Amino acid sequence: MRKFGSLLLPPFLCTLLVCALASAAAGACKVNVVFQHPPKRTKNFEQILSRAEGGDRTAQFEAGVAFETGTGAEQDYDAAAQWYRRAADSGSVAAQNNLGGMFLRGLGVPQDDAEALRWYSRAAVEGYLPAQNNVGFMHASGRGTRTNDEEAVRWYRRAAEKGYAPAQSNLAFMYSQGRGVPPDGAEAVRWYRKAAAQNYAPAEYKLGLLYYEGRVIPADIDEGLLWLQRAAEHGSAPAENQIASAYEHGKGVALSYDQAVRWYRMAAEHGLAEAKQNLAMLAAHGVPAMKGASEASSQGPGTNLEPGAAFWGKGPE
User: Fold this and answer.
1) Cβ proximity of 305 and 237 under 8 Å
2) What is the dihedral of CA 243, 244, 246, 250, to 10 degrees?
3) CA–CA distance, 171 with 159 (Å, rounded to integer)
4) What is the distance of C-alpha 103 from the center of its chain?
5) Per-residue confidence (pLDDT) for residue 4, from 0 to 100
6) Rounded distance, CA 106 to CA 94, Å?
7) Which residue in 170, 165, 143 sits closest to 155, CA to CA?
């Protein structure tokens, strides 16, 4: 039986646009924005805006980021999209990628998957790794195009072989599901481990599940729990939820409803709806909320990171 230590949540640096491939069905995608690292507050925004108005595409990109995230300027999606477009039209691949994300989510522009794919593709053909990953996601999920797993794998692999962790994780997912490639648990583990070596929480979580569930590879519950713990330490709410389930059912750890409530509450406070439902189910069965449980998440700003992530470009090329 494994006993988990106290949860340590590290500081975060860059932003994610998360699109979860929840199933093999086309369009099975949840789109929301979370932060793996909170964006740094834009300094001297007036100077950046002045340079942007003068045609500096890096400043135009930075202005778009400031308006999109509300760091350094009041959040304004319309303004963000306008500045991204100006920088994108000037050739900024980071802005092209982020403008694609605005169209995907319908922020500051009409929601339009085909337009999102067009902008992602412009940056991808220039070698911008986040955009290559995003083009792969669009093909895998049938967003803006017909579902084409082979094409998705091709784009994921291009970015994965350059060391891009989200694409490595997505390529691993395709191997685990046999989508666009023959199912291959060993290859799935190999690519998840490459991404996990970069402390990429979604890969750590999915790798933990592979070992813990034993559906794709032989089960190794202790190894699975190690990776789930590591993902939780890096802010993964789904990993927190899975650890809670382990305590609730006594699978690999000593059964403990107190610990189950503690971990479910952390995942719920980090935004995972499933964890809130699990807490409600425990309460319905007479398991009380743990006193002081809300303090469990006060150690850091966990994030809801999910598999199949499409990265938001965090800086100019």
Assistant:
1) yes
2) 140
3) 10
4) 18
5) 54
6) 18
7) 170
Please name the residues in contact with 277: beta carbons below 8 A apart, sequence gap of 6 or more.
Answer: none
Looking at residue 288, its pLDDT comes to 77
The CA distances from residue 48 to 13, 37, 39, 44, 80, in Å, are 21, 22, 16, 6, 13
Over the stretch 90-148, which tens digit does the pLDDT of each residue have? 999 999 999 999 999 999 999 999 999 999 999 999 999 999 999 999 999 999 999 99
Residue 167 · residue 132 · CB < 8 Å: yes
| Separation between Cα atoms, residue 14 and residue 230, nearest integer Å | 19
Query: Where do the domains of the chain lie, and which CATH numbers do they carry?
Result: 15-187 (1.25.40.10)
DSSP run (H or E) holding 115: helix 113-124
Cα–Cα dist 201/191, whole Å: 13
Task: Tell the residue number behind the tokens 């108005």, with chain if given.
Answer: 53
Q: How far apart are CA 134 and CA 111, in angstroms?
A: 16
Q: Cα–Cα distance between 283 and 258 in angstroms, integer?
A: 12
Q: Say which DSSP state 289 is in.
A: P
* Rounded Cα distance, 166 and 164, in Å: 6
What is the rounded CA–CA span in Å between residue 12 and residue 59?
Answer: 23
Query: What is the token pair recorded at 244?
Result: 């809670």
Q: ∠ at Cα 300 (296, 301), nearest 5°?
A: 110
- Cβ–Cβ under 8 Å, residues 237 and 270: yes
Contact 277, 251 (CB under 8 A): no
Which residue in 293, 241, 285, 249 sits closest to 267, CA to CA? 241
- Neighbour-count burial of 1, counting CB atoms closer than 10 A to its CB (0-12 exposed, 13-18 middle, 19+ buried): exposed
What single letter denotes the amino acid at residue 238? P
